[in-house]
Amino acid sequence: MVQYSYKHDRISALAALSVSARRKRMGLYVRFQQENFHAGDVANFLRQLLHHLRGPVILLWDHGRIHTGPIVGKLREDYPRLYVEWFPGYAPELNPVEFIWSDFKGHSANRLLLDKQDIRLHLHGSTRRVRRSQDRLRAFVLASELPSPPW
Fold first, then answer.
1. Per CATH, which fold does 12-97+114-143 belong to?
2. Which of 36, 45, 92, 138 could form a disulfide with 98 if both were Cys (CB 3.0 to 4.6 A apart)?
């Protein structure tokens, strides 16, 4: 008999996939936390991302509630080099980050992750694995139904 705990612990995740048209390089930025993300968390994530990236940043976003509100609006005002383009209402097929999550889940299949610490370690390992492969990062963009990038 196998015992199973029905605790629904969770780890929430945010991710950004950067595409540099000039250098033809891609980057993956992720954050994990135990609580649900809120608009303030998103604003902090974006602020750190903008300190990391140079020049104009075009952000493709869905209409999630955590992507709106006064905190995020203030951040957008503070960083005029940040441009936001909105995905249609429900269009995961357009979002390359959805393919990242699918990849992470696929590499979790048939593994016994006992607790949040195991899950967190596995997620960080998946992040390192994906970050190291420019081909894999490009594949996520190409798998989406976005127009093909100029590379």
1. Nucleotidyltransferase; domain 5 (3.30.420)
2. 92
